[in-house]
Each structure stands twice: as C-alpha cells, then as structure tokens.
C-alpha cells in the first residue's frame, strides 16, 4: 500500500525559501511517478512538478520554473520540493501524490497533468506573506 507523508511547510516572507519533503513507502513496481500539487484557497488544485523512477524532473507550472526544484533521495525514500524566491501567489496547501506503472512509460505520460493518482499525502500548508 502506497503511503506518503509531507512535511516542511510554514510561514515565509516573500523572497524567502522553503524545502518540502515527501516521505514515501509501499512501492511494489519499478516504475513510478511522484508529483507535487498545490491548492490555493478558493482555487482548483494544480500540478506543480513531477519526478519519475527514471529521475526525470518535469515542471508543470511555468510560474515555478527557475524557482522550484524537485529531487529525490532513494536511499531515504524521500522526494523534495525546494522552493526559492517565494511569492504570495505560491500560498496554498501542498500535496505529494504517487502513481505506479506496470511497465516502462514515457516520462511525458507518467507526469501528465491529471488528478488521478494511486495515493495522496495529507498536505502541508505554505503561506507566503509579509
């Protein structure tokens, strides 16, 4: 059973940085994608970034390119989202989600913009405010 637990959220001033962590467990297949989403108050959830078992990062939001970095540490079963130069519009609840695949898939397909994933974490709040 896939399980994910996020941590690292908090309050930060504009221009500041935060590093979110997603602890994952329960993968049984060799091919998977772990995805960061966020949801701002009153807005729809949006897909932020994705990393696959091939270690190929994809940034799905143009607004975070150059500011956010997704990475993973397989030895620790962790995926990170390093967020820099944070802006008030980055405020929201950040979730990590995961999906396993039965065989090799194109990274483009594994990181496609979709909400249907196999498991979700509980979310961690990020607030960017002065």
Task: Please give a handful of descriptors for the protein shown.
130 residues; seven-stranded mixed β-sheet; 11 strands
In words, what does this structure look like?
Strands 2, 4, 5, 6, 9, 10 and 11 form a seven-stranded mixed beta sheet that branches. The protein is mostly beta strands. The chain is 3% helix and 49% strand.
Describe how the helices and strands are arranged:
Elements: E1 3-7, E2 10-12, E3 18-25, E4 31-39, E5 46-52, E6 57-59, E7 68-73, E8 78-83, E9 92-101, H1 107-110, E10 119-120, E11 124-128
Parallel strand pairs: 2-11
Antiparallel strand pairs: 1-3, 3-8, 4-5, 4-9, 5-6, 7-8, 9-10, 9-11
Distance between the termini: 40 Å
Strand content: over 45%
Helix residue percentage: under 10%
**Largest sheet, strands/sense/barrel:** 7 strands, mixed
Shape: globular
Number of strands: 11
Structural class: mainly beta
- Rg from C-alpha positions? 14 Å
Helices and strands, in N-to-C order? EEEEEEEEEHEE
Mean pLDDT: 94
Query: Which residues sit in consecutive blocks of at least 5 with pLDDT less than 50?
Result: none
Number of helices: 1
Oligomerization state: single chain
Quick structural summary:
The chain contains 1 helix and 11 strands, in the order E-E-E-E-E-E-E-E-E-H-E-E. The protein has one helix at residues 107-110, and strands spanning 3-7, 10-12, 18-25, 31-39, 46-52, 57-59, 68-73, 78-83, 92-101, 119-120, 124-128.
């Amino acid at each position: 059973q896939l399980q994910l637990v996020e941590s690292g959220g908090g309050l930060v001033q504009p221009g500041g940085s935060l590093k979110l962590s997603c602890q994952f467990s329960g993968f049984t297949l060799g091919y998977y994608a772990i995805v960061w989403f966020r949801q701002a108050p009153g807005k729809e959830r949006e897909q932020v970034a994705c990393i696959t078992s091939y270690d190929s990062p994809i940034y799905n939001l143009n607004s975070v390119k150059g500011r956010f970095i997704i990475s993973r540490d397989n030895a620790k079963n962790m995926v990170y989202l390093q967020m820099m130069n944070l802006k008030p519009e980055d405020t929201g609840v950040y979730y990590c989600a995961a999906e396993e695949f039965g065989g090799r898939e194109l990274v483009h397909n594994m990181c496609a913009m979709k909400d249907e994933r196999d498991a979700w974490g509980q979310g961690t709040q990020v607030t960017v405010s002065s």
